[in-house]
Amino acid sequence: MKPQTHPLQEILKHRIAIIDGAMGTTIRTYGMTEHDIRGQRFQDADKDLLNNGDLFSISQPDMICDIHRRFLEAGADIIETNTFGATSITQSEFFVEDPRETGGRKDPAFYQKIIDDPMLQNLAWEINETSAKQCREWADRVGNETGRQRFVAGAIGPLTVSLSNSPDADDAGFRVVTFDQVKIAYKEQTRALIAGGSDLLLVETIFDSLNAKAALVAIREVFDEDGFTSAGNELPVMISAAVGRGGETLISAQTTEAFWNAVQHVKPLSVGLNCSLGPDLMYPFLSELSAKADVAISCYPNAGLPNPLSETGFDLGPDDMARFLGGFAGDGLINIAGGCCGNTPAHIAAIAKALEGRAPRVLARELVAA
Length: 370
Fold this sequence. Notes:
The protein is of the alpha/beta class. It has a single domain, classed as TIM Barrel (Alpha-Beta Barrel). It contains 16 helices and eight strands. It has helices spanning 7-14, 23-28, 34-38, 56-59, 61-74, 88-95, 108-116, 118-146, 179-195, 209-225, 228-231, 256-263, 279-292, 318-330, 345-355, 365-368, and strands spanning 17-18, 78-80, 151-156, 200-206, 237-241, 270-275, 296-301, 336-337. The chain has an eight-stranded parallel beta sheet with strand order 1-8-7-6-5-4-3-2. α5 runs parallel beside α15 (345-355), α9 packs across α10 and α14 (318-330) packs parallel to α15. The longest helix has 29 residues, at 118-146.
């Protein structure tokens, strides 16, 4: 059965779509404390939780929903779920004792216990499903109020472990986790994001291409096992990598072109770059990707380089980001634009205004004909 054309595909033929900004940056503007993230439910947790931003979807839902609302009202067509680290593997960093503190090490046996832990499984599911439902509610509400459809992207972020590299300088073949363990964690996340009402699945901020491959295999298996393929209603997949100064993924060190070659078989809705070094340093690698890929191109950079003296922790303000992304549009490089770290709703509003009426990058023949 041939799948129906997704509404976002139609939009991308005619204009540049806007994706939201940084959840973590915007959360910090609310002045949340350790007490706030713990709430009643997590008050007895042994480890500090404040850096576990995904947990706010459970403990401070009003704040998270307010952030989604603000990004939507700033002009975002696509809002991301607050699930960047919402796998059992990443959540274990906040709820499980690190064996290295008592002379042990993290290894596949340790992570098998994580994968099998019912508490971590249930927590990861709850964060993903809850966050997707929050996004769904506000995307539909603002979409109905404005007469412009908005979309929920289930955010699938990188992990705190690597499949590409060994942490042991004396054992290059050692890996702390297996491909199958990573895949299982990503399958749990994928199913929960779908259950919560996501329109799209976004594998983003890819530092390690092999981790990303596990996520993409997980998505494929969920589609096949849960009947999406036979029903012809698979969710579109978006893929976005983070790159260093040489244009390589930061852990696995694939060049931009090699990264595209590694993922193009997925036939994603879009491929792109996010996070990284800021829009100016990202430009040549985005240009290369735009020239090579035959799908829509997304771009949501950091607001420049980190700067602890600035209000957002990054150098560039809303007008700066609008100018850079306006230049990308003028050069015909992008179909989806927004911001990553350091980008608040004010940044997204400026970007949306700068790109209004600007022509999108010409899509590949296959996508236009879809």
